Amino acid sequence: xxxxxxxxxxxxxxxxxxxxxxxxxxxxxxxxxxxxxxxxxxxxxxxxxxxxxxxxxxxxxxxxxxxxxxxxxxxxxxx
Length: 79
Prior knowledge:
Largest sheet: none
Order of helices and strands: HHH
Shape: globular
Structural class: mainly alpha
Number of strands: 0
């Protein structure tokens, strides 16, 4: 049995995660914060490339998971 969340609920969770991530990044020393910002900007630039098009909901979800994993790895590596 599949359950689906409403779009407003999903957007609310994403916004909450975004605010938490921003709060955590703001607590980092400026040099580390700069590394995170640079990596995030590079990921955004890659996502905006014309050849990066999600054909399905699963591809969109996979891309989001990859982005979060890369950001998490970066934050872990600069401790």
